[in-house]
Design brief:
- Helices cover 8% and strands 55% of the residues.
- By secondary structure, the chain is mainly beta.
Length: 100
């Protein structure tokens, strides 16, 4: 599925969902966090995500820019990014998306 996001650092980037139900370990200064059932995104070209882009909304690129996930990490090159599935994010906060 073609996707895109607009981040503080990299602005508008485009890519595609290259895997779902991904388990990824992310290293932070305080330790390592394990994330399960995540979305992996592959950049169309260059970097998809860089430091400062965390929290960017991942949306469908084609029709309607529908929410897909919330970006939170990437590999060292930024070519591969990882997002929490939007349904999990909404459920965690007890909110829904208003509109069509």
């Amino acid at each position: 599925m073609p996707v895109e996001k607009y981040g503080r650092t990299t602005a508008l980037t485009q890519g595609s969902v290259c895997a779902v139900d991904v388990d990824v370990d992310v290293s932070y200064s305080t330790g390592t966090a394990a994330f399960v059932n995540q979305i992996a995104v592959c950049a169309s070209r260059g970097a998809f995500i860089k430091a400062g882009d965390s929290g960017s909304l991942l949306v469908t690129a084609a029709t309607g820019h529908s929410p897909v996930g919330l970006m939170f990490a990437g590999d060292a090159s930024g070519r591969y990014g990882f997002a929490n599935p939007i349904d999990s994010v909404l459920a965690a906060f007890g909110v829904s998306i208003d509109g069509s």
